[in-house]
Amino acid sequence: MYSYATCFQDVRSPFLQLSDLQEGRYMFQLTVTDSRDQQDSDTVSVTVLPANKAPVAITGPDRQLLLPLNSITLNGSDSTDDQAIISYQWDLIRYHGPPGLKIKDANKAVAIATGLRSGNYKFRLTVTDQQEETDSAVLTLTIKEGEQNQASINISNMGSVSNSGTANVSFLWVRDEQSPAAGDVLYGSDHEAFLYIANLVEGTYLFQLRVSDIQGRSSMATATVEVRPDPREREEVELELQVGMAQVSQQQKETVVRQLAALLHVLDSDIALKGLHGQSDISTVFRFSVQGPDGTFPGPKLARLLRNQLLREKSDFLLFKVLRVDTVMCLLLCSERGQCDPITKSCSCDPLWMDNPIRRLLDDGESNCDWSVLYVTISCFVTINFLNVNVPD
After folding, report:
1. What is the rounded distance in angstroms from the CA atom of residue 379 to the CA atom of residue 375?
2. Neighbouring residues of 222: CB distance < 8 A, sequence distance ≥ 6
3. What are the φ/ψ torsions at residue 189 (nearest 5 degrees)?
């Protein structure tokens, strides 16, 4: 069937020209005749489809939302086409506010926008049909602050946050670059309200705490920690024993404490054990001080007493062999001719002075700077000459 408004041209040629076709199905018959008047016919069907209509992108009405807001759904599933939509694309075309927004599934009808902050957003949805016709629509979102106020921080022994739900707050502790490097953060607490840190050394530490909420608001404060030397450290001594740290049981530790108390004629409770640590794979250091009748034993006096007893007279008195006895702090006077090396716990003598080995071996066992290098050299020279003179030929 065809409309009478359809125009035919060249109906007696191999090529038929048609115009003004309308929507519908057309049947045409072609008849061919040769010079002997022999004929043959065939039919052809032509279907005229309606004109393609461009798709229509639909994003829904503009919206105003209040924080807190983790994410928002961008819904373009109401978009239409006379045949089928083959692609969707969401794009952020305008935004005034802090950075951080991300669009998940931006190439699908329904997308998710995250990282929203206070500000104005414009999203464009572009849809494409099978004929590559496109259409776009714009969705405007206005995100405003809720009724909460700016998060504030108060630092004392912890970071406490005012006017914000702690479940939606993140913490970050950062050590100042000029603070001592020593000190280990425990339990990942640099991302918690409480900061736990161990192995601090003497000095001043500065920590900056930054608190942020999910709306992108943040506040900062600084905490100062001053680590002072332990005033009792001068009275503490180190006792190095020949036993690996892993081999020392609780019972053996208590036995050593009782033996020390018996050696020093004090009560077990007068031995204040500060701690144990492994010096090497085969040695363990006991760190302690001793309370006597007249107060705490001075560290140098206690070290000399234990050195004389445990390294000479009673070397087998303790449960384990004693390798070394020293004060925790380097307190050697070095005969006022040198400095005490805090690493080796021995004297580093001034030029022209040297250690007196006789005193170390036969007296108190302390490192010293008693002897003059010049006098020792002269004495050796005189002694050698004297021996040479008195040796008979």
Report:
1. 6
2. 155, 206, 207, 208, 209
3. -75, -5
Two structure tokens written together for 362: 């036969």
How many residues are recorded in the chain?
A: 393
CATH assignment of 63-144, given 3.40.50.410, 3.10.20.30, 1.10.150.290, 2.60.40.10? 2.60.40.10
Reported confidence tier of residue 150, pLDDT bands at 50, 70, 90: very low
Backbone angles phi, psi at 128, to 5 degrees: -130, 135
Q: 352 is written with which tokens?
A: 């022209």
Span 111-121, pLDDT tens digits: 999 888 888 89
Q: What is 231-327's CATH topology?
A: Alpha-Beta Plaits (3.30.70)
Label the pairing between strands 24-33 and 71-75: unpaired
Cα end-to-end distance, the chain, whole Å: 152
Q: Comparing 152-227 with 231-327, is the CATH topology the same? A: no
pLDDT in tens, 30-46: 899 988 889 899 999 98
User: How large is the C-alpha radius of gyration of the chain?
Assistant: 47
Tell me the pTM. 0.45
Closest CA to 209 of 197, 218, 220, 217: 220
Instruction: Assess if CATH 2.60.40.1510 describes domain 152-227.
Output: no
